[in-house]
Specification:
The chain has 334 residues and is an alpha+beta fold. The chain folds into two domains: 90 residues; 222 residues, BirA Bifunctional Protein, domain 2 (2-Layer Sandwich), CATH 3.30.930. The strands form two sheets. A seven-stranded mixed β-sheet has the order 1-4-5-9-8-7-6, with helices on both faces. It has a two-stranded antiparallel ribbon with strand order 2-3. The chain is elongated, with a radius of gyration of 39 Å. The N and C termini lie far apart (85 Å).
Length: 334
């Protein structure tokens, strides 16, 4: 039987030859296991070093280490050679002259673009964003907003109620109530978000749409502040030539209340000189009482507008349903 020294020398010369003879990853792995696996030749010879004579251990140990390095180096080299050969074969099969595959670039939905544009204008004049739940209770959606129990908006025909008595909010004015319940004046917020009403879907109505409502409460806030704020906003949104007018109206939670019309020749209103775009008014004292504010000390104004309506005006769109059909031919225009 060959001595340990002869076996180490033989392994050191034979292993590289066996690795070189491997032609694919499977055969390379078989050779690796043969020499380096738990039951492989090299670990077995290393175990025998313990039984060698003390005088021979240093010399045999050095030889064993050289054999180990030679075997591992041969394995790594052959592994790299096979990987490079496979990569070269893949490259040979690939036509590098073919044009690249362009991935489509996404973009924001036109309603999101419009909402961000509106929000950015109000943020420039000190308004901050406030959010609230889409599932609400009658207190925040109606009672605290001075809406009487017999108001048509509270009917099942107009509002989407849940089985537990809660409802899907019909307006983002609910956010104004929640903010006033937890914060003291001065308050200057805008509340963008989805709202829900039991509307028949047609070219101008949708059961789900988006609103942006605003609230400013402090001492000494007047109708002049309301008018100046809204005129500034619509000029920034629709162009410097935009004109606005305020018409008396009725909302349960504001007094006095106004509808806002605008006129902007650059938008092309199809022969109409004035077009309604938003509602607003001074916060009713009963709303302040509901949230614990002193109506003798504080005043404020509120306003609201539909995001879809603004987007339709800005882009000349005549059917609200286009926003929700997910037709990329329509969406790619924005």
């Amino acid at each position: 039987m060959p001595s340990l020294e002869e076996q180490l020398v033989a392994l050191k010369s034979q292993a590289p030859a066996d690795f070189t003879a491997a032609t694919d990853p499977d055969s390379l792995e078989a050779v690796r296991v043969k020499y380096l696996g738990r039951q492989g030749s090299l670990p077995d010879l290393m175990k025998q070093l313990g039984s060698a004579l003390p005088a021979d251990r240093a010399r045999l140990g050095k030889l064993a280490n050289e054999a180990k390095i030679a075997v591992q180096s041969a394995f790594e080299q052959r592994k790299d050679d096979l990987e490079n050969a496979n990569a070269g074969a893949d490259a040979a099969r690939f036509d590098t002259t073919l044009p690249g595959r362009m991935r489509p670039v996404g973009r924001l939905h036109p309603l999101t673009q419009t909402m961000e544009r509106v929000v950015a204008i109000f943020q420039r004049i000190g308004f901050t964003i406030a959010e609230g739940p889409e599932i609400e209770d009658e207190w925040h959606c109606f009672d605290a907003l001075n809406t009487p129990g017999d108001h048509p908006a509270r009917d099942l025909q107009d509002t989407l109620y849940l089985k537990d008595g809660r409802l899907l909010r019909t307006q983002t004015s609910t956010v104004q109530i929640r903010v006033m319940e937890t914060h003291k004046p001065p308050i200057r917020i805008i509340a963008p978000g989805r709202v829900f009403r039991r509307d028949e879907v047609d070219a101008t109505h949708s059961a789900c749409f988006h609103q942006i409502e605003g609230l400013y409460v402090a001492e000494g806030v007047s109708v002049a502040d309301l008018k100046g704020t809204m005129e500034f906003f619509f000029r920034e949104l629709l162009g410097p030539e935009t004109k606005t007018r305020f018409r008396p109206h009725f909302f349960p939670y504001t007094e006095p209340s106004f509808e806002i019309d605008f006129s902007a020749t650059s938008l092309g209103l199809k022969g109409r000189k004035w077009l309604e775009i938003a509602g607003c008014g001074m916060v009713d004292p009963n709303v302040f009482k509901a949230v614990g504010y002193d109506p003798e000390k504080f005043t404020g104004f509120a306003f609201g507008m539909g995001v879809e309506r603004i987007a339709m005006i800005l882009h000349g769109i005549d059917d609200i349903r286009l926003f929700y059909e997910n037709d990329v031919r329509f969406l790619h225009q924005f």
